[in-house]
Amino acid sequence: MNLRIQAHDFRLTDGLRQHVETRLACALNHGQEVVTGVVVRLSDVNGPRGGADKSCSIEVRLKGVPALIVEDT
Predict the structure, then answer these.
(1) Which end of the chain is more exposed for a tag (fewer CB within 10 A), N or C?
(2) For residue range 37-69, what is the model confidence (pLDDT) as tens digits?
(3) How many domains does the chain have?
(4) Is 38 exposed, middle or buried (0-12, 13-18, 19+ CB in 10 A)?
(5) β-strand partners of 39
(6) pTM above the 0.90 mark?
(7) Could you read off the pLDDT of 2-39 as tens digits, one per residue?
């Protein structure tokens, strides 16, 4: 499975990268044979203004079906 983690408008730390990798490994453990790739996009919506303003989009690519995209802020 190909995994890409992208951070927009903030620094992706090693700890955050490891957290995302660990959570995805647990969540996708039973479907590894059909998952071909995952793209995680993390962004800081408000930029330097601060506050609780993070956004996460996860795109899961599966064999033989359209990609599944989940977003949360």
Answers:
(1) C
(2) 999 999 988 776 666 688 999 999 999 999 999
(3) 1
(4) buried
(5) 4, 59
(6) no
(7) 999 999 988 999 999 999 999 999 999 888 889 999 99
Check residue 34 and give left, alpha or beta (phi > 0: left; psi -120 to 50: alpha).
Answer: alpha
Q: Can you spell out the DSSP letters for 6-29?
A: EEESS---HHHHHHHHHHHHHHTG
| Measured CA distances, 38 to 24, 34, 49 (Å) | 9, 12, 30
CA distances (Å), origin 23, targets 1, 2, 5, 42, 47 = 15, 15, 13, 14, 25
Query: Which SS3 state, helix, strand or coil, does residue 50 take?
Result: coil
We report the CATH number of the domain holding residue 51 as 3.30.160.100
Question: How far is Cα 6 from Cα 56, in angstroms, rounded to an integer?
Answer: 10
